[in-house]
UniProtKB/TrEMBL annotation, chain A:
Protein name: Spermidine/putrescine transport system permease protein
Annotated source species: Peribacillus simplex
Top-level taxonomy: Bacteria, Bacillati, Bacillota, Bacilli, Bacillales
PROSITE patterns (UniProt xref): ABC_TM1
Similarity comment: family membership: Belongs to the binding-protein-dependent transport system permease family.
Membrane-crossing segments per the record: 7-31, 68-88, 100-121, 133-153, 174-196, 231-250
């Protein structure tokens, strides 16, 4: 009955390749010397990378993406860490409901969330503004931060805080010297995750951007809808590179798998 | 006379309680939870203001007749819903969405189950690597992944050229901008969720059941179909529901890889 196990492993390997292949082909395709994207690439040149610099809209979109992702990560980490501390440390009545509520933006399709926020923002004059964009991104980042920080807090020994307080430290010192260093790694990985989530988001962003303010995935999306151009491959490779870099850091700090443990996450 | 009886029973309980103090030594982390609520206030206000209220708002809008939208007199009606279910355009695109989502679920299930089984049977280290490999693509933007499929599925793309070189097909298949393209894109994007939810249920299976089956002489094939598969059905069901609902609500992939309209 060796064949049964062999078949299982063969399909498993095939499935993992299936998951990874769209990312794998993009990078070699970006080095093409032809005027159309293809895999395997024809020839070798870096022309499509230098072309990125000639197209200011990509650079601007990249800077926009990075700026908003950093802000969304900052705010969602502040909100999320405070909230997670409140849930983990104190016996708040109905805390499981509160946790469910705070992670619920994950289980709503992003398309619906985007439409809802757009309709809600329009009378408030927030539609198409950077404030509206930022708010929408914080909403989609908060569940990840909550989940990561709550996981990080599950092994937290509150006696350490108590010991520091008994030894005469004031609450602020306790927080800065004891609590923060211990939950710091969870908060940092929550922040990195939020950054990636915001940086990569297309669906919600589509409803929040304006012609003056576009992010990188939106720029790629509209380029792909118009015409396929090898510049999409080189820009995509840059995105993959940034993502892989952050994933490696995340994996070193806390482990990427933890965030998705049985989660209801919507993407696309 | 119900209330008085319950009071009486409560009194009895209170009287008997000192006799059994060992019953549940409930350790409370903190007696006061007001500071906790204070810590939660910013995030709760934010989620209420920018998530709960907007969701309720569109639910409310869906019941308002379009003609009067924004007008002084809003008319509550189910007109939007009757319109949705009577218009053939909406109905056919709804049916197409359901069909494509079902295909995506099937592809994800058949590819995902062996991966989940392999993860459940491997050591923690290998499981960690597999988790990293299947989860990482989720952190790369969906547009980038779709672009990768575009390269592979083009009429003169990798897959068509390989198939033609092998002599399996004569003319390039229409893979891109077709239902097949959308199914490939969706099943690829949501396969990790299927795997993770099946793995969660496979972990919960007691390994001694499989051993017992082996001792009693069952073949690996028999043990899989009589023990592992039935016990992992909850994971399969939740994975299928998850992938189906994600596919139903997907927008970006159908917009880039499909041709017909899908909501």
């Amino acid at each position: 009955m060796k064949t049964f196990g062999g078949l299982r492993i063969a399909v498993a390997v095939l499935a993992i390749i299936y998951i990874l292949i769209p990312l794998i082909v993009v990078i070699p395709a970006s080095f093409t010397s032809a005027n159309y994207p293809s895999f395997p690439a024809e020839g070798f040149s870096l022309q499509w990378y230098s072309k990125i610099l000639e197209r200011p809209e990509f650079l601007e979109a990249f800077l926009n993406s990075a700026k908003f992702a950093a802000l969304a990560a900052l705010f969602s980490v502040i909100f999320g860490t405070l909230g997670a501390l409140g849930i983990a440390k104190y016996d708040i009545p109905g805390k499981s409901y509160i946790t469910a509520l705070l992670t619920s933006p994950l289980s709503v399709p992003q398309l619906v969330l985007g439409i809802a926020l757009l309709m809600y923002f329009t009378p408030m004059m927030l539609a198409g503004t950077s404030t509206g964009f930022l708010i929408a991104h914080i909403v989609i980042c908060i569940p990840y931060v909550m989940r990561l920080v709550l996981t990080g807090l599950s092994g937290f020994d509150y006696n350490l805080e108590r010991a520091a307080a008994i030894l005469g430290a004031n609450p602020l010192t306790v927080f800065m010297k004891v609590t923060l260093p211990l939950i710091g790694s969870a908060a940092i990985s929550g922040g990195l995750f939020a950054f990636l989530t915001s940086f990569d988001n297309v669906t919600v962003s589509l409803f929040m951007v304006s012609p003056e303010m576009r992010t990188l995935p939106i720029e790629i999306f509209s380029q792909m809808q118009d015409a396929y151009n090898p510049i999409v491959a080189s820009v995509s490779s840059v995105v993959i590179f940034i993502s892989v870099l952050l994933i490696v850091i995340l994996e070193k700090i806390q482990g990427v798998g933890k965030v998705f443990g049985g989660s209801h996450h919507t993407n696309g | 006379m119900e209330p008085s009886r319950s009071y009486a029973s409560q009194e009895i309980e209170q009287q008997t309680s000192p006799i059994e103090p060992l019953k549940k030594p409930k350790i409370k982390k903190r007696k006061v939870w007001v500071p906790g609520l204070l810590l939660l206030t910013p995030i709760l206000l934010f989620i209420f203001g920018f998530f709960v209220i907007p969701m309720l708002y569109i639910l409310y809008l869906s019941f308002i007749s379009t003609d009067n939208l924004g007008g002084a007199e809003a008319v509550y009606s189910l007109k939007n819903y009757t319109q949705l279910f009577s218009d053939s355009y909406y109905l056919s695109s709804l049916w197409l969405t359901v069909k494509i989502s079902l295909y995506s679920v099937l592809v994800a299930l058949f590819l995902g189950y062996p991966v989940a089984l392999t993860m459940a049977k491997s050591s923690a280290r290998i499981r960690g690597y597999i988790t990293l490999l299947i989860v990482s693509p989720l952190l790369v933007s969906i547009v980038v992944r779709n672009f990768g499929w575009y390269l592979l599925l083009l009429p003169n793309g990798t897959i068509n050229q390989t198939l033609m070189a092998l002599g399996i097909i004569d003319a390039p298949l229409k893979l891109l901008f077709s239902e097949i393209g959308v199914v490939i894109g969706l099943s690829n994007a949501y396969l990790p969720f299927m795997i993770l939810s099946i793995v969660a249920s496979l972990y919960n299976i007691d390994p001694s059941l499989d051993k017992a089956g082996a001792i009693l002489g069952a073949s690996p094939f028999r043990r899989f179909f009589s023990i592992t598969l039935p016990l992992s059905i909850p994971g399969i069901v939740s994975g299928c529901i998850l992938v189906f609902s994600l596919s139903m609500s997907a927008y970006v992939t159908p917009a880039l890889m499909g041709e017909p309209t899908c909501p």
